[in-house]
Design brief:
Helices cover 32% and strands 28% of the residues. It is of the alpha/beta class. The chain folds into two domains: 5-233 and 447-470, P-loop containing nucleotide triphosphate hydrolases (Rossmann fold), CATH 3.40.50.300; 239-427, Class I glutamine amidotransferase (GATase) domain (Rossmann fold, 3-Layer(aba) Sandwich), CATH 3.40.50.880. The strands form six sheets. A six-stranded parallel sheet has the order 2-9-1-10-11-12, with helices on both faces. Helix 1 (16-29) packs parallel to helix 2 and helix 1 (16-29) packs across helix 15.
C-alpha cells in the first residue's frame, strides 16, 4: 500500500495534469491499480461518464491512462464559469446551482462540500492504490487557505506525499519554488517531498548547477527536470493552449476554422480533426479568415446567448452566413448547434439578461434553454457506421435527430462527433486525401499515453517516488 501522491503547482498551467497522467500510466505499467483524484476542478472542458454524470476532462484522460472508466469520485466538484463573476457548481456529477465567486469562496458553508470531496476520496482509496492526486492553480494562495478544498488541506486529509511542479519555461523558477514552499504552514511544508521542474528547453546539463541551488534553497530534493514534449497529443483542459493555435490559412490543405467563442467549451472535440494530414485547423475570431476557410465550425459554449450576441456584434455571424451561401461547409456542435437554428429562447433567465435571440437561421430548429442538464454517452449512425460520443448541454431543440444535416450545414449536440473516422472522411469527401487516418482513436491514445510515460520515466526519479510513497 502506497501513500497517495499529490502534484501541486507553483501556478496554473505548469503541467500538473499531464504529469499526473504520466504517473497514472507508469503505475499501471508497473502492475499497480492507480486512480486519479482532483477534489475541485475549474474548467469548461468536461466529459460525460457512462452513468450520465459530468467531470473535468483532465480526470477523464487520467482515468483512461489508468485503464479505468471515468467516474465522478475522481473529480467530485467541478466549477464551470458562466462569466467573470459567477460559476455553475457541479457536485458528484450533477449541477447544484450557480454561485458568485465571493459566495463560493466564503468559509461559511464549506463544510458540506468538504465532506462530499472527502467521501469521494475515501470511496476511491478503498478500491485503488496508489491514488494520484492533483492540486489546483497555485499551492501558495494563502488568502484562500481556510476555504481551500483541493490543495494542502486535501493532502492533509489524504495523508498524501506532495510534489511541487514548477514551469521553468515561464521564468522565475527559483522564486516560485522557494515562495511556494516557504509560504506553507510548517506541517504542510514537511509534507512536500520533492520538486519537478517542468517544460525545460535546451541542454539539461546547463541546469545541473541550477538543480543543486534549487535543492539547497528550498530544502527539498529535485526529483526530475522534464524537457518540453511539444508534439505530444494529450487532451488539454485549459483554453490557454488555444492561443497557440491561431494559425493562418494554408494552401494545399483543407482549411478548417473553429470560431473562437468567448465562452468556448470542450475544444478537444477538434483534436482528431486537427491531426488529420489533410487538414489545417485553426482557431479564429477574424471575419476574413472565416470567409476564406473551407469548413467553419461553431463549437460548444458555456453561454450560448452571450456568444450568439457577440457573434452578431463582431460581424462573425454575417461571415458564417456568407460562407454558407458561398458553398462552404458549416458545422455546429452543442451550443454552436443551437446558434445555427432559428431562435434560442431563455424564458427562465438561466444564462442571464437575454431572454431570446434570433439564431443564424441555417438550420430549421428552435431551442429553449432549460434548468435540467442533459449528460449522457450516446451512439449514433453515420453513413452505415455506428459512432460514439457524449452530450453535455442545457436546452432542448425541436428535433429528435441525433445529427441534423441541411444543405451543407451539420448540427449536433454530440461531443466527440469528430472523433469518428466515418464523420471526418465524410466531411472531407470532396478532396483527394494525401494521408487518410490509418489508426483508430483508441490506438492513438494508448500510443500517446505510453510515449508520455516513457518520457517522464526518463527524466523523473520514479524509484525515488516509490520510496517516498512507501515510507512511514
Amino acid at each position: 500500500m502506497f501513500h497517495p501522491l499529490m502534484l501541486v503547482g507553483t501556478g496554473s498551467d505548469v503541467g500538473k495534469s499531464v504529469l499526473c497522467t504520466a504517473l497514472c500510466r507508469i503505475f499501471l505499467q508497473d502492475g499497480y491499480h492507480p486512480a486519479p483524484f482532483k477534489a475541485q476542478n475549474m474548467a469548461l472542458n468536461s466529459f460525460a461518464t457512462s452513468d450520465g454524470r459530468e467531470i473535468g476532462r483532465a480526470q477523464a484522460v487520467q482515468a483512461e491512462a489508468c485503464g479505468l472508466p471515468p467516474h465522478t469520485d475522481m473529480n467530485p466538484l467541478l466549477l464551470k464559469p458562466n462569466s467573470e463573476h459567477t460559476t455553475q457548481v457541479v457536485l458528484n456529477g450533477r449541477p447544484v446551482g450557480n454561485r458568485s465567486a465571493y459566495d463560493y469562496f466564503r468559509k461559511e458553508g464549506r463544510g458540506e462540500l468538504r465532506e462530499a470531496v472527502h467521501a469521494a476520496f475515501d470511496r476511491l482509496r478503498a478500491q485503488y492504490n496508489p491514488i494520484v492526486m492533483e492540486g489546483a492553480g497555485s499551492v501558495s494562495e494563502i488568502n484562500l487557505r481556510d476555504s481551500d478544498l483541493v490543495n494542502m488541506p486535501m493532502a492533509r486529509y489524504a495523508d498524501a506525499d506532495v510534489v511541487l511542479v514548477a514551469d521553468i519555461d515561464r521564468g522565475g523558477v527559483f522564486a516560485s519554488c522557494y515562495g511556494s514552499v516557504m509560504l506553507q504552514e510548517p506541517d504542510d511544508r514537511r509534507r512536500i517531498k520533492g520538486i519537478i521542474v517542468n517544460k525545460f528547453r535546451g541542454d539539461l546539463r546547463l541546469f545541473e548547477e541550477g538543480r543543486r541551488l534549487l535543492e539547497e534553497t528550498c530544502g527539498v530534493p529535485v526529483l526530475g527536470v522534464v524537457p518540453m514534449l511539444s508534439d505530444l497529443a494529450i487532451d488539454e483542459e485549459d483554453s490557454v493552449s488555444l492561443e497557440q493555435k491561431r494559425r493562418s490559412l494554408r494552401a494545399g490543405k483543407i482549411n478548417v476554422a473553429v470560431v473562437l467563442l468567448r465562452h468556448i467549451s470542450n475544444f478537444t472535440d477538434f483534436d482528431v480533426l486537427e491531426r488529420d494530414e489533410r487538414v489545417n485547423l485553426f482557431y479564429t475570431s477574424n471575419v476574413d479568415d472565416v470567409g476564406q476557410a473551407d469548413v467553419i465550425i461553431l463549437p460548444g459554449t458555456k453561454s450560448t446567448l452571450d456568444d450568439l450576441y457577440h457573434l452578431r456584434r463582431s460581424g462573425l455571424a454575417g461571415a458564417v452566413i456568407r460562407a454558407h451561401k458561398a458553398g462552404k461547409t458549416i458545422v455546429g456542435i452543442c451550443g454552436g448547434f443551437q446558434m445555427l437554428g432559428q431562435t434560442v429562447e431563455d424564458p427562465e433567465g438561466i444564462e442571464g439578461d437575454f431572454h431570446s435571440l434570433p439564431g443564424l437561421g441555417l438550420l430549421d430548429i428552435h431551442t429553449t434553454l432549460t434548468p435540467e442538464k442533459t449528460t449522457r454517452q450516446v451512439s449514433f449512425e453515420w453513413n452505415g457506421t455506428t459512432c460514439q460520443g457524449y452530450e453535455i448541454h442545457q436546452g432542448v431543440s425541436d428535433s429528435d435527430a441525433m445529427v441534423v444535416e441541411q444543405e451543407g450545414v451539420i448540427g449536433t449536440y454530440v461531443h466527440g462527433f469528430l472523433d469518428n473516422r466515418a464523420v471526418i472522411d465524410y466531411l472531407l469527401h470532396n478532396t483527394n486525401p494525401s494521408q487518410p487516418m490509418a489508426e483508430s482513436l483508441a490506438f492513438f491514445k494508448e500510443e500517446q499515453y505510453n510515449r508520455l510515460a516513457e518520457h517522464v520515466r526518463r527524466h523523473v526519479d520514479i524509484p525515488k517516488l516509490y520510496e517516498i510513497m512507501s515510507h512511514d
